[in-house]
Amino acid sequence: MTSAWTNEAAIQQWDSGSTRESMEATAVSGDFSKEHLVNPVLLRLLGDVRGRRVLDAGCGNGYFSRMLAERGAQVTGVEPAASLVSFAREKSAADISYLQADLAHLPELEPFDAVVCSMVLMAIPDWKPAMRACVEALRPGGLFVFAIVHPAFEELFGTWREHGEYRRKEYLAEYEIVGRGASDFHRPISAYLNEVAALGCRVREVVEPGLDPAHGIEAYARMPNFLIVAAETGCPIGQ
């Protein structure tokens, strides 16, 4: 990352930008995109979670942790931003425990059957240690599922609204994308998939979900704004 951003700065931005109003508005199923595009795919890829230990890595306000707990999972949510983890604990169900920690510096935990990291990695300046921590938290043969803004179609809605099509001038470089609440960081798709492979995982499925045209948002019906990857642990890291 070539900018002055650090994980600590990004966490502070998320912490200060997460208002009570915004957290309440997304407390049940996240925002529109998560409800209609991301969550259904994550739940399908995770499969039957009853009785399984699941780590929600970067759980935000805890809405997905609560969805998993409702489906019978034993959930641990990890979130570094104080305002978000406080809200998550307030809304907590009995089968959820929350830890305030940077994903890149997780405490030692019992191995999980699955780790889900939804809409987090593209928001972390130093993202590779966070991905490594997610994989290391899994038991052998465990499932790692992550969702990110699709690197080829970032800022899709805004450019489509302005031009009637999607436009992008740069793809191969790594750079910061300044957002209203917090920044994301662009990296090519290959950066994420190559890191998954380097960590000894086998990719099971890659999903680029499209929106049902009935919702009337042409950009999301024609092009994928999200990339979702399911991988399983295989050989030990470093071998």
Automatic annotation (TrEMBL):
SUPFAM superfamilies with a match to the protein in the record: S-adenosyl-L-methionine-dependent methyltransferases
Keywords, comma-separated and alphabetical: Methyltransferase, S-adenosyl-L-methionine, Transferase
Gene Ontology BP terms: methylation
The Methyltransferase type domain, residue ranges: 55-146
Source superkingdom: Bacteria
GO molecular function: 2-polyprenyl-6-hydroxyphenol methylase activity; 3-demethylubiquinol 3-O-methyltransferase activity
EC number: 2.1.1.222, 2.1.1.64
Residues that span the membrane, as ranges: none
Protein name: Class I SAM-dependent methyltransferase
Organism (species): Amycolatopsis halotolerans
Lineage: Bacteria, Bacillati, Actinomycetota, Actinomycetes, Pseudonocardiales
